[in-house]
Amino acid sequence: MPIQSINPINNQLIQEFEEHTDKDIEKVLSRAESTYNHWRRVAFAERTQLMLAAAAQLKQRKTHYAQLMTDEMGKVKQEAIAEVEKCALTCEYYAERAEKFLADESLSVPEGEAYIAYDPIGAVLAVMPWNFPFWQVVRFAAPNLMAGNVGILKHASNVPQCALALEEVFREAGFPEGAFQTLLISNEQVNYLLEDRRVRAATLTGSEGAGSSVARKAGEQIKKTVLELGGSDPFIVLADADVAQAAEIGVKARMINCGQSCIAAKRFIIHRSIYDDFVTLFLQKMQQLKQGNPNEVETDYGPMARADLADELVNQVQKSVAKGAKVLLGGARPNREGAFLDATVLTNISPGTPAYDEELFGPVACLFKVDSEDEAIRIANDSPYGLGGSVWTQDIERGKVLARQIESGAVYINKMMASHPAVPFGGVKLSGYGRELSHLGIREFVNQKTVWIN
C-alpha cells in the first residue's frame, strides 16, 4: 500500500511513495550494523565536524525544509523555519558538548581505580510523530550519532517527504552511509525491526497506545525504550499573577503549531479572584488570531495535520458539551476546504468528559475556575498525563513550592513550557518515561560500563 503525502490545506495528494519491502529493510539493517562497527570507533573530533556540517546543512536549506513541513502537515511557515533553526542549534549543542557529557566518570572505591565509561550500544530505532517532523527526529539523532550509535527512522506516514529529507541532511553532511537511515514502512512492520537482534533499543514519541505497543514488543526482547507520549499540561494562574501577561502567553502556549503539541498548555486553571479578567483577555487574544493558509505571513494558525484529526477533536468537544461543557469560542469546523478547525475555548468542564479526562490535541483550550492553590494542584494532578506544566505568580518562592507538587516531568514558572537542548525533556504517568535532550538524553542509549582496575 503506498504512503501518501497529502496537503492538509486542501486535502490534495502531493506525492505517493512505495513502502519499503522486507528486502529493503534487510539492507537497511545490514548497512546499519556494518556502519556501527566502524562509527563507534570514530573520534569525537570527527563526529563533531560532521554534526556541525549537519547544522550548516539545516541552516542553508531551512526554507526548503520548512516548506516540506508546511506542505505535509500544515505548519505555519514561520514556525516551520523556527523549527529547522532549533534543529541546527541542537546539532551544534551536542557537537560541542557530547565528548564532555560522555567522558569517563571517576568513582570513589576502597582500592585501585574505578570509573564509568559511556559506550555506544548500536542501532536505535526511532518511531516519530508528524507534529514536529524535524525537531522530534533531530533531538534523537544528534545525541545518538554523537554517542557513536546509528539511527533508523520510522516516521509518521503522513510526512514521508520530511522523513526522506532528514536522511538527506546527515548524508549530505558527510556521515557514513548507514549512520542515519529512513524506512518508509507501516506500523505493523515496526515489530519486525524490534525483533531483529541488530536493533538494540527504541525511542518513540506518539500516543500512549503506540508507546505501549512498542514498549511491550521491546520488553519481550529485553531492549530499552524511551517513550514521550501525550500531555494535558496545566497552566495555573494564581491570584497574584500578572493577568495580562498570563493571558497573552497562555494563548501562544495553547495555539502554537495549531495546538498540536504534547507540551502545549491545555488546561487553564485560574483563581476565582482573577478568573473573569483572565477570561476576557484570553478570549480577546484568541479572537484576534488569524486562521488561514500557513504559507501566508499574516496567518497565525493554519489547518490541523489531517482532516480526520480535526473531525476527531470536534467529536471530543461535542461529547463534552453534551455533558455540560460550555463553548465560549469556536467549537466547529469552518466552511472551507482543508483540515481546519476554529480556535475553541471551553469552560464548565466536569470529570467524565473528554475535555477533562483526555488529551485535546489541537486548538481547544479548557478553562477551570478554582478557589485555592490546593484545588488548583488537585485539578492539575487529576489527569493520567504528566508531561509539563506552568505556574504563574509574582511570588517566586511560592511558585517553586507548587512546582514540586505538580506531577509532571517539567514545570516552568512565569514561562511558557518549551523544549530546549540544554533542558531534560520527558514525562511521568501516561506521558511516558526516560529523558531526551541535555546530558541525560545522550546517556539514555549508552552502556554505562563500570571499569575497576586493581
Short note summarizing the structure:
This protein is of the alpha/beta class and 454 residues long. The protein has helices spanning 22-39, 44-60, 62-73, 77-101, 135-147, 160-173, 190-195, 208-220, 243-255, 272-288, 307-322, 354-357, 373-381, 396-405, 438-442, and strands at 3-7, 12-17, 105-107, 113-120, 123-127, 150-154, 180-183, 199-205, 224-228, 233-237, 265-271, 326-329, 344-347, 364-370, 385-386, 390-392, 412-413, 428-429, 432-433, 446-453. Helix content is 42%, strand content 21%.
Total strand segments: 20
* Rg from Cα: 23 Å
Q: What's the CATH architecture of the largest domain?
A: 3-Layer(aba) Sandwich
* Whole-number total of structural domains: 2
Structural class: alpha/beta
* Main β-sheet description: 7 strands, mixed
Strand content: 15-25%
Tally of helical segments: 15
Q: Please state the overall shape, judged from the principal axes of the Cα atoms.
A: globular
Percentage of residues assigned to helices: 40-55%
What is the straight-line distance between the termini?
60 Å
**CATH domain fold name of the largest domain:** Aldehyde Dehydrogenase, Chain A, domain 1
CATH class of the largest domain: Alpha Beta
Q: Give the spatial strand order of the biggest sheet.
A: 12-13-14-11-10-16-17
Unreliable residue runs: none
The H-level CATH homologous superfamily of the largest domain, spelled out, is Aldehyde Dehydrogenase, Chain A, domain 1
